[in-house]
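testing teh design pipeline on a random one, pls ignore if ur not involved
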């Protein structure tokens, strides 16, 4: 049974400083038995970063594309990427960005500033959105029990930095942000095209060899810890050479991972 103190020690062993900006991808089930369950996990993470750092979770809601009414409410629309993300966004003091498909929730220093303006971009992970700000803040990205780094939404942002040719669908969707007064704010949004995340884990050897990716434990969960800026620079160099590296078209043609 894991406790608050044992999980706190795991964070310290991972080398995460209270002043860090940290984005967390998570699988609660992988952590194992914890006293008071997910509430304790969030207590540990929030307490560690609240004074001088910033704790961020993805609170994605891309299922909006399949809904008849394509309306995003920051208070009511659930996150579709795990239990901890949904519980975190509802906690006191947590700020959620206002992008209808790729919002984040943040707690700690500069949370409001970090999340602001996300609704002004027509793509999910624009350079000046919270996803791009992870690069500017030299953030760490912690993967708790996700088995690989393929769920890294930040890598979508890196692809948007260029941008990678053909990564967006041709026509935008009309999505809507519900404001506190009930009025709707229209957000034309270009959806990512293809399933590039299927191949993100192919970059792991490159990142590991260059010190951008480390491994550790949090409870029972195997973890990956990614240096956002260092990994982005490595992947940008790769994509400038081979822009379509993370596409199914390229990987099928290549027949193997040339990084191995």
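output:
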């Amino acid at each position: 049974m894991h406790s608050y103190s044992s999980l706190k020690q795991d964070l310290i062993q991972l080398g995460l400083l209270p002043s860090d900006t940290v984005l967390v991808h998570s699988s609660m089930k992988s952590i194992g038995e914890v006293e008071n369950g997910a509430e304790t996990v969030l207590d540990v993470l929030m307490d560690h970063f609240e004074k001088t750092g910033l704790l961020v979770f993805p609170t994605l809601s891309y299922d909006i594309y399949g809904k008849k009414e394509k309306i995003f409410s920051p208070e009511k629309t659930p996150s579709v990427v795990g239990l901890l993300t949904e519980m975190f966004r509802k906690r006191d003091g947590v700020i959620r960005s206002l992008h209808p498909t790729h919002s984040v929730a943040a707690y700690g220093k500069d949370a409001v500033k970090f999340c602001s303006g996300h609704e002004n971009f027509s793509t999910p992970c624009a350079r000046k959105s919270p996803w791009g700000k992870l690069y500017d803040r030299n953030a760490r990205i912690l993967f708790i029990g996700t088995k690989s780094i393929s769920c890294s939404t930040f890598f979508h942002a890196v692809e948007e930095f260029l941008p990678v040719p053909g990564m967006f669908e041709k026509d935008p969707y009309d999505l809507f942000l519900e404001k506190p007064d009930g009025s709707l704010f229209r957000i034309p949004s270009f959806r990512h095209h293809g399933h590039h995340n299927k191949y993100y884990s192919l970059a792991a050897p490159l990142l590991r060899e260059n010190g951008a990716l480390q491994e550790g434990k949090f409870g029972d969960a195997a973890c990956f810890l990614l240096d956002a800026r260092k990994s982005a620079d490595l992947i940008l160099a790769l994509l400038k050479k081979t822009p379509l590296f993370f596409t199914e078209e390229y990987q099928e043609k290549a027949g193997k991972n040339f990084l191995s």
